[in-house]
Amino acid sequence: MKCYFIEEKSIRIKGVKYVVDCVVEEKRYGDVKEIRDMVNAVFYAVFDVKNPFKLVFESNEPIGSSHLLYRFRYMLDNGRFIGVRVVTKNNAVRRVLFTVPEEPGKLNLNIGLANEQPVLTEYNDPSSKEQPPGQVFIPNFVIYNILGIPKFNVEEWRLEVSGLVENPVTLDLEGLFRFGLAEYLIDFHCVTGWSVGNIRMKGIPFERILSLVKPMEGVKWIYTEGMDGYTTIFPFEEVLKPNVFLALEMNGRPLEFLHGYPVRLIVPHLYGWKSAKWLRKIVFTDKYVNGYWESFGYHPRGRVFEEERFKDY
C-alpha cells in the first residue's frame, strides 16, 4: 500500500485540512460489509489512534459505467468526522481516501507518505470513436457549484495569466473581446457519466492567449482558479489541441452566470471538472499540484475517450 499526503487551498473552503490518498492492492468485494472491513484495515494502518471510531456508511454513486464511489464517515468525539471515499472499478477496490477536518483532535499518521508524481499513459487518437465510453447524453446540464456561487463585481473582474511565460498579462472583459470570437460546436462530458451534445458557443481560441503570453520551455502543466476558489490542473499539451477556448457566449447568448460568466475555460476533450468556471487565474507551471477534485483522487488529465476518471497510479 502506498499513501499520498495532499494539502490544497481550495479543499480548506470545505473544511478539509488534508487528504490521505491510499492506493491499495486491488481486491474484489461482494458487499458493503466487505468494503467496510477494508476501510477499517487501511484506516488503522494509516492513523495511530487509541480508541476506535464509529464508521458510518453514507452513500454510493456510479461514476461512468465501470466505477462506483462509496462514501463513509468516521465520527469523531468533537462532533466532526473524517470523510472516507472508496474508489472501486469493476467490483474491485482501487483507492481509499480520508478527508481530515481542520480540528480532528489527536490523530497521528502511522506510516510514511509518498510524494505524488503523476504517471500519464501515451495519448491515443480517439477520432475513430463516436460515443465516449460510460457516458449517457441528456438534454440539459446538471449544474454543480461545489464551493458555492461567488459574488463579485464584473467591472472589477480580471483574468491573470502568469507563471512560466515571457509576457504575463492581466485582462479585463473588454480586453478579452478584442481578441475576437470564434464559433464552436462541442459536446460537454461530466465525469459522473452524463453528457450534453451539440452546444453552440463563442469564445477566444486559446492559441491566441498562447501567442500573447509566449509560454517558456519547460512548461508541463496548466493550473487554473475560479472566483469561487475552485482549482484544477491538466497537462500543458492539452491546450495545444484544437477547440480549446475561453467561452464568452453559449447558444447565442452571453454565458449565463451559473455556467461561469464572465469567462469559462472549455477543454472539451477532457471531463468537465477541468473546465473551470468564473475563471480568474491561468498559471503555466512545470510542477504538478493537485486541484480541488484531484485532491479527492480524480485524474490529473481526465481524457474523456480514454475514460480517465480517477488516478490510476
UniProtKB/TrEMBL annotation:
It comes from the Archaea. Residues 148-293 form the Oxidoreductase molybdopterin-binding domain. GO terms for molecular function: oxidoreductase activity. Gene3D superfamilies: Oxidoreductase, molybdopterin-binding domain (3.90.420.10). PANTHER family: OXIDOREDUCTASE MOLYBDOPTERIN-BINDING DOMAIN-CONTAINING PROTEIN (PTHR43032:SF4), PROTEIN-METHIONINE-SULFOXIDE REDUCTASE (PTHR43032). This is Molybdopterin-dependent oxidoreductase.
